[in-house]
Predict the structure.
Amino acid sequence: MPAYEIEIILNRQLADCLSMPVFITDTKGNLIFYNEPAEQVLGSRFEDTGEMNVETWSTIFKQQDDEGKLLPPEKLPLVRTLRDQYPYHKTFWIESLRGKSEKISVTSYPIIGRAGKFLGAVAIFWEAKDL
Amino acid sequence: MKISIRGARGSIPTTGTDTSYYGGHTSCIVVSENDWILILDGGSGMQKFKLPNNSSIKRIDILLTHLHLDHIQGLGFFIPFFDPSLEIHIWGPASHSQSLHSRLSRYLSPPLFPVLLRDLPCKLIMHEIENSSFEIGPFAIESRFIIHPGPTVGFRISGQHSVFAYLPDHEPALGSIGMHSEKKWISGIDLALNADLLLHDAQYSAPEYKVKLGWGHSSMDDAIKFAALSDVKHLLLSHHDPYHSDEELNELFADLKKRNNYSFKYELAAEGMTFELP
């Protein structure tokens, strides 16, 4: 397999240095990397799972609104970023692999490289705070 | 494919008796095959390049990895620019902000230089490249963006029978975990895979690199690791630090050999070296 574009590689290197959970996907939404803090959110280790295709990892979280209604995928920031190549942000509830319900904020942004080419997306998960 | 090293120093020309063996000229390599000539980078090593007398060559291609001064400072003194019978192509990395011509003109114009690019007598043609594939005479060339500050590419040059990979300014180990062991997560590796000859950045010793992380260059140890992961046949360590004398380079290289036992050939690039690839 050819090497990833440097913009993807540099995003992974940055994610490795951060204490925020970071998920990196390719343009189709396949999860190509998640960092150590994200392992706690996901309930699994990147070393164990490796890359995950979009069908597998998109079903891991049960995402709900404040009233407990299931959010359709097209309302999620990362899905919208992959569709529109534009950054998004949203606060909602998730139930992780470990069955734990958490209120989180997700910020996603597209990776658009030097050549202006859309290469993938990054989602940063924050513990939601009532400010 | 014939390869001639005209400059192997990094950052700034460094003349003196203590650097005379590896040389003081900055990056410039001449590659030739079947009367086609490629000049890789326009460092100060470019200054002494001349076409042979009675040469039938009417075209020269200059491939720039990036536009830092040590890679373009020889352009103003490149004799063929002043020959109206020559067609000279310059290939360099594209930028979102300005054209290649405009960025080169920042150096090749007053007050930094008296001659404007547009006033050069040769026929000058610019090509902006990205992650590109293109052909020049017998050469099939791949360029890819690689890790170094500003738009910077490396080149994979395939001749009729051999491959030369050129990544003189490259920091593939940038990050908290250093160079990854999985090939698809390593910047530039596609360019170098199975090359007959790789010229790679090796500006620093390992301790020096620790305090110069993010400056865009590699340690000798990382360069050799990159070459091993790329399965190259022969590695030239280049872009020597301007503060390293010949004696210091020899000591660093001896120490490197003690710590690394790779089966492929590796050595320090020196000005004046030539290689004939099959």
In short: Chain B is about 15% helix and 25% strand. Residues 246-259 of chain B form the longest helix (14 residues). The radius of gyration of chain B is 18 Å. Chain B has a mean pLDDT of 96.
